[in-house]
Amino acid sequence: MKITRLRSQLTYDGAALALEAAIAKAKAINAPENIAVVDSGGNLLAFARLDGARFLAQHSAYSKAQTAASLMMPTGQLGLQFGVDLALATGSRSINLPGGIPIIVDDVVIGAIGVSSGADPDDIAVAETRCWPD
Amino acid sequence: MKITRLRSQLTYDGAALALEAAIAKAKAINAPENIAVVDSGGNLLAFARLDGARFLAQHSAYSKAQTAASLMMPTGQLGLQFGVDLALATGSRSINLPGGIPIIVDDVVIGAIGVSSGADPDDIAVAETRCWPD
Amino acid sequence: MKITRLRSQLTYDGAALALEAAIAKAKAINAPENIAVVDSGGNLLAFARLDGARFLAQHSAYSKAQTAASLMMPTGQLGLQFGVDLALATGSRSINLPGGIPIIVDDVVIGAIGVSSGADPDDIAVAETRCWPD
Amino acid sequence: MKITRLRSQLTYDGAALALEAAIAKAKAINAPENIAVVDSGGNLLAFARLDGARFLAQHSAYSKAQTAASLMMPTGQLGLQFGVDLALATGSRSINLPGGIPIIVDDVVIGAIGVSSGADPDDIAVAETRCWPD
C-alpha cells in the first residue's frame, strides 16, 4: 500500500505561460475574454479580464476551469439535465458551458484553463491555445 | 400521545461497512468514485474519494446521499423541472442525479449512500452494492 | 522556467490509514469525533463521524483540515480578530480552532487531518495521532 | 444635471503591470503570496497565486482588494466589531485584514490590490509596491 504518489503539478510560471498564450490569442481574434487557470485541485493560479470582457463572466471562466480540471475533459459536452444538476450539486463550481480545457502534460491533467465572455467558438479557440512545447 | 418513538439508526460501523463494500465494487469495475454515506437525517457518516475520482463530484456524492435518505428512494427519477426546483429550494442538498440509494433495514430507511464521478451505470452499480446480511 | 513540478500527493490509501489511526485513538480516549482528511489542495479524501459525535462538528472538522493544509501548520494559533477575519474571508473554509494538523512526509505538506466534536485536548490528541512509518 | 461623468479606469494592462510589480516584490522578500487586482467596481482584473502560497488565501486576497477599492483606503484599520459586521453585511466582500491597498492615479481610486498568505508586514509590503510612474 502506498500512502503517497508522485504527481506533476502546474507551477505559477506554467500557469502564467498558459495565460499569456491565451491572452495573445484573444487579442488576435479580437475577443475580450475572462481567462482563468487552475491547478488539478481546482484552486485558482492565474486570471485575467481583458478590457471589454463581460464582468460576470469572471465567474463562469473560473467555473469552466474547475470543471475541466475535475472532469479531465473539455467542458460543455453534457446533456442539459445532467449539466444543470451537476452545477446545482456543486454550488456552480461545475458548469456545462464550452470553453474549459484541461491542461495535460505527459498524459496527466495538471490543471485547466477556462475562458468566458465571447461567443462559444471564441471561448473555445482561446482556451485551446497550444502553449506547451511538444 | 407518544412523545418518543424507537428508530433503528445506522451506526458508524454500519456506514464503514457500506463504504468498504462500495469501495471494493468501485475497484472491481475500475471506476474511481466519490462515495458518501449519510444517516437518516442526512448528516455525513463516512466518505471516500478514490484516486482518480473527479474532485468536484465530492459535492454531488454527498448531495445524492442526502437526497436518497430524504426521498427514501433511489435518486435521479424526477422530472427535469421538479428536480431543478427541489435543488434550488434545498440549497442543493437535494439533487436529481442517479447514484443515490437508500440503505434500508427491516423496511426502515436508516441512511443512504451516494456515489459520483463515473458514468451513471457505474455510479448506480457502486451505490447498489449489497452490504448487509439477509 | 519550469511549468511543472513533481509533488508528493496523499493517496486514498494513505488518507484511510490516517483516518483509521485517528479513529483508534478517539476510541481509546473515549472521544466520539468527526474526523476529516484532505489533500494538499483542500479537497476531501476521507471522513468519519463516530457514534455520539456532534453532527454540526462535521463542518468544523472539514474546515480544520482545510485550514491546516492551507496554513501548513496546526490550527488554532491565530489571534481572535485575525482568525475571525480569515474565517469570514474564506467562507469559513479557514477556521481558527485547534484540532487541525498538517500531514507532512519528507518535509512536504501532502494533506491534513481535522478533528472536531470533543474538548480541545481530545481533538488535538486525535489529530496528532502518529500514523506514518518513520 | 449631468447624467454622465468621465472616470479614469484601470485597464487590464495597468492591472498586469501592478501584478508584475507585486510578484517581483514578493519574490524579492521570499514571500509566496496570492495577489489580486480589482477595478474600482471590485471586479477581478488580474490574479496570481505563487508557488507555496496558502491556497485559502486566494479568497482573502480578493476580499482585501475589493475592500480597499470600496473603502478607498488601506484595509485592516477598522475596529473588531465594525470589521466583522461589515464582513457579514457584505457576504465577506469586505474584510478587515491588512494587505489591501487602493490604486490611486491623479487622486482617483481606479482599483485596488489585495495580497494574502504571508505575515501582515509582507502582505502590506507587497501590496504597497509602487508600480506607477510619478
Question: Which helices and strands appear, and what pairs or packs with what?
Answer:
The structure is a homotetramer of 134-residue chains.
Chain A: E1 4-10, H1 12-28, E2 34-39, E3 44-49, H2 57-71, H3 80-89, E4 100-105, E5 108-116, H4 120-127
Helix pairs in contact in A: 1-4
Q: Domains counted in the coordinates of chain A: how many?
A: 1
Poorly predicted runs of chain A: none
Look up the CATH topology of chain A.
Beta-Lactamase
Helix content of chain A: 25-40%
Q: Largest beta sheet of chain A: what is the strand line-up?
A: 3-2-5-4
- Shape by Cα distribution of chain A: globular
User: Major β-sheet of chain A, in short?
Assistant: 4 strands, antiparallel
Can you give a write-up of this model?
The structure is a homotetramer of 134-residue chains. The radius of gyration of chain A is 14 Å and the shape is globular. The first copy, chain A, is 37% helix and 25% strand. The first copy, chain A, has helices spanning 12-28, 57-71, 80-89, 120-127; strands at residues 4-10, 34-39, 44-49, 100-105, 108-116. In chain A, helix 1 packs across helix 4 (120-127). A four-stranded antiparallel beta sheet of chain A has the order 3-2-5-4. The mean pLDDT of chain A is 94. Chains B and C meet through helix 1 and strand 2 of B and strand 3 of C.
